[in-house]
Structure formats: C-alpha cells, structure tokens
Amino acid sequence: KERECEDCGKVILSRDGMRRHKMSHSGVKKAECKTCGKSFSRPSHLQLHIKRMHGTSRPFVCVICGQAFALQFDLNHHVRVVHDSKKPEGNIESSEELFACGECNLVIEARCISEHQEIHSAEK
Q1: How far is residue 12 CA from its own chain's centroid?
Q2: Nearest-CA neighbor of 41 among 29, 33, 52, 51?
Q3: CB 32 within 8 A of CB 38
Q4: What confidence tier does 93 reach under pLDDT thresholds 50, 70, 90?
Q5: What is the separation of C-alpha 78 from the centre of its chain, rounded to a whole number of angstroms?
Q6: Cα–Cα distance between 23 and 68 in angstroms, integer?
Q7: Domains in the chain: ranges and CATH
Q8: DSSP 8-state secondary structure symbol assigned to residue 80
C-alpha cells in the first residue's frame, strides 16, 4: 500500500520504506564521515557520500564531455540532465528545480546542490 509522508508529501511504497524515510526528517544522524565530519541518517548514505566526495576511483566517464563519476547512477543522471534535450527521467520530478554549479557548471537537482558544492570547498 502506498503511503504519503506527512512531512514532505513523498510517496513511499512500503511500511519499512516509510520508516527509513522518516529518519531523514528526524534530525538524528548516526553515521558520520570520518574524513569531513558530515553526518547522515543512514549508513548507506554515508557510503555513497564517501565514494562521491572522498574516493579517488572515478571509472564512469561521460563520452560526451569527459567528466568522470564514482557511481554509474551519477553518470546516467549527468547524461540525462546535461546532454539530453528531452525532459530528465528517473528521480527528478517534473517540479524539481535544477541549478548549474557556479564552479563547474554541473546541472544538478536543487536538493543536491549543497552537497555537490562541498566538493569545491574541499578543493580550496
């Protein structure tokens, strides 16, 4: 049975999924990055953060512009958003605003821009 989050309106498909999603609203962040100190509500989000922000392996390379990514998902997202002329698919809702990073011109969902900009803060 589908359930709608009372806090943000996101539709979740399972009771367990809703329980995990609610953690994102609780403010409780038990998983902390040992490199930069950023905290996450779920250990899996911490692992993705470590790969994206602190990992050196970027095996997924855009054949159009050469930008490299740590995760296949991020490359797929990049190609859809930056290079496809059609409406982005997947996790981007039609109402989701997109922003271009002022440092690297990466086009990214509004909700992700702060985390992305940490890459540039770490470089300085």
Answers
A1: 18
A2: 29
A3: yes
A4: very low
A5: 11
A6: 31
A7: 3-53 (3.30.160.60), 56-123 (3.30.160)
A8: I
